[in-house]
Amino acid sequence: MNEEPASRSLSRRTLLKRVIQGLGVTFALGHVIPRVMAEAGGVSKNEADHLIVHVARPLDAETPVQEFVSYLTPNSRFFVRSHFGPPPAEPLSDPNWRLSVSGLVDRPLTFTLQDLKQFEEVTLTAVVQCSGNGRVFHRPKVPGVQWERGAVGNAQWAGVRLRDVLAQAGMQTKGRHVQFQGADRPVVATVPLFIRSIPLEKALHPDTILAYEMNGRPLPLLHGAPLRVITPGWMADSCTKWLTDITVQAEEAKGYYMQTAYRVPTTPVEQGIAARGQSIPVEAMVVKSLIAAPQEGETLKSGPVSIQGVAWGGEVKVAKVEVSLDEGKTWETARLVGEDHPYAWRQWQLVWKAKTAGTFTILCRATDDHGQTQSKTSPWNPSGYLWNGWDRVTITVAA
Amino acid sequence: MTISGHSRAFLLMISLVGLAGVTAAQKEDLGVISAAPALRAEGLIIARCSVCHSADLIAQQRLPRARWEATVEKMEHWGAEISNDEADLLVRYLSARYHPGAPDQLPPLDSEFRKAEPLAQEPVAEGPLTGVAARGAGIFEHNCQACHGAMAIGGMGPKLVKTPILKHEELFLEMVLHGRGAMPAWSSVLSPQDIADIHAWLVTR
Fold first, then answer.
1. Residue A254: which residues within 8 A CB-CB, separation 6 or more?
2. A318-324/A358-368 β-pairing
3. Residue B2: which pLDDT band, with cuts at 50, 70 and 90?
């Protein structure tokens, strides 16, 4: 992998670049920020220039889906999302950073990264996906970052079990939720902090880890260095980055990001009406698939075409992927190929014999082991979470 | 072209954009807004909203008026420094330009309008400006501190104390007026005199 190494040197370089630019020509009129300038918070061009930037600051950027022909999503091409952008690199660097474990525990503890590495290391491959991935497809439209298809990726994560860390601190029986807080902070102090919690069952699951490596490299700054939560099979709102504080408590986390955002209605809501009834936090992923090749708008020669992509079911295995070339009237089963691990995505392929010239729409849908199949569209919800409608790519076969 | 000519063209542009793909339910969102308040609203977005997030987050939304109202209210609640009148103006502008029927790709606000629009404060003076450090401290606190930190020691944005660009006042003025990278353009919010005052204060730091 060829991503940039440490973020500390990057921020120094970015600063230098700013100074040089400051003495050069001024920038074009207006406030449109080109994607390469997404440099606030130490984000350099190299870290984001393979991504589609939706918000320049704080950086929100997705992966072009053609990257998903690769089983693992490289760090430099993995989608980036946070509410406040990365914290300054210095407090996160090795001599300064600490993880605190407190709340309903017998022994509140503080760990350095080296301390944490004394626990047994766990390596697993898991999909991480933004809860708002596909938000742009909801109708009526909903507010939020208008993610299309690529706010998702599949990476190998290495770290230690959250339950081992909690056991050392001594969980008290009243503890029912584990709260996470990272080092990222809003620009304005009146904005609520990004504080989240997961229920005890998920926190104590042996596959829930505190990860310090991503695809064999130290966690990059944009992805939560030096430590982030990975809740395999759950949406990324539980995967707190830049983790500094774990608190065991009796209740779910309070505050906007747990009690208002990242929730879906328990009963279907009328389209376009803001939810008022009961809601539950966004947790497990729902079965979903994407077409990575051919690409949207591509022109192909007639003959055999390899249609390929990925499919995932979160905590549930993918059982089947199907492809339709007639707007969903008939479906043909694709072949599941490549590696097969829990929580990771599954690659799939289908060879289509393109015989006639014209424009064609390729659809795909996946079914998981529990029999859940993707529908044409997802249930509407006011914040546009958990989109898993059929994926769709339109191509042209040349005469 | 005169300013009023621009205003008419702008009004027409927003109206035409509004007519594309409109349903009856969406019609009420399409309040027409003329050039002057639109530019004031754009200035507010730069000065008040993009303290926390770049304006691209706003431009990608397509929302009915009620959801714009709720969003602006949420931002006020979270600390956006906007008066009630400014909030009303923002809701009017946002629901006119970024309504559910608006196309994905909106034409950019013509940069000519920005040039034609007189600054909120005094017009550009001839010759070098003399900054007043005492005024600059207050202007900095209100407009710059959220990103560049109290006393300009840096925050989400770079530290400004002793930054090399301070030695080049003309470049400093240009950069603040027109923005660069993550730094938004301030020409519709700060006058050259304001910027000179901020500069005068920064060099004392």
1. A195
2. antiparallel
3. very low
Q: Is residue A111 part of a domain?
A: yes
CA distance A58 to chain B (A): 6
Mean pLDDT, chain A, integer: 89
Q: B182 and A40: CB-CB below 8 Å?
A: yes
- With bands split at pLDDT 50, 70 and 90, how would you rate the model's confidence at A156? very high
Token pair recorded at residue A216? 């064999």
pLDDT tens track for A378-395: 999 999 999 999 999 999
Domain boundary among B116, B147, B178: B116
Query: Which strand (E) or helix (H) includes residue A113?
Result: helix A113-116
Rounded CA-CA distance A252/A196 in Å is 8
Which residue among A249, A281, A313 closes a domain?
A281
Least confident window among A18-22, A44-48, A274-278, B17-21: A18-22
Q: How many domains does chain A have?
A: 2
Please write the tens of the pLDDT for every residue from A295-325: 999 999 999 999 999 999 999 999 999 999 9
Residue A26 forms part of a structural domain:
no
Bridge-partner residues for A55, per DSSP? Answer: A60
Answer yes or no: do B71 and A33 touch at CB < 8 A.
no
Task: Give residue B96's domain range.
Answer: 3-116
| Bigger pLDDT: A126 vs A31 | A126
User: How far does A384 lie from chain B, in Å, by closest CA?
Assistant: 13
Contact B57 A145 (CB under 8 A): yes
The mean pLDDT value for B49-60 works out to 91
Q: Tell me, yes or no, whether B66 and B104 share the same domain.
A: yes
Contact predicate A58/A83, CB 8 Å: yes
Residues of A in contact with B185 (CB under 8 A): 29-31
Distance from C-alpha of A391 to C-alpha of A65, rounded to nearest angstrom: 11
| Domain shared by B99 and B145, yes or no | no
Q: Do residues B82 and B28 both lie within one domain?
A: yes
Cα–Cα distance measured from residue A238 to residue A217, given in angstroms and rounded to the nearest whole number: 22
CATH of the domain at A195: 3.90.420.10
The answer to whether the CB atoms of B53 and A58 lie below 8 A apart is yes
Instruction: Give A37's contacts in chain B (Cβ within 8 Å).
Output: 181-182
Chain A residues with CB under 8 Å of B174 CB are 26
- Bigger pLDDT: A142 or A11? A142
B128 is a domain residue = no
Contacting residues of A for B100, CB less than 8 Å apart: 140-141
Q: Are residues A223 and A352 in the same domain?
A: no
Residues A100-114, mean pLDDT to the nearest whole number: 98
Are A188 and B52 a contacting pair at CB < 8 A? yes
Which residue range(s) make up the domain with A393? 288-397
Q: How many whole angstroms from its chain centre is CA A308? A: 21
CB B100 within 8 A of CB B68: no
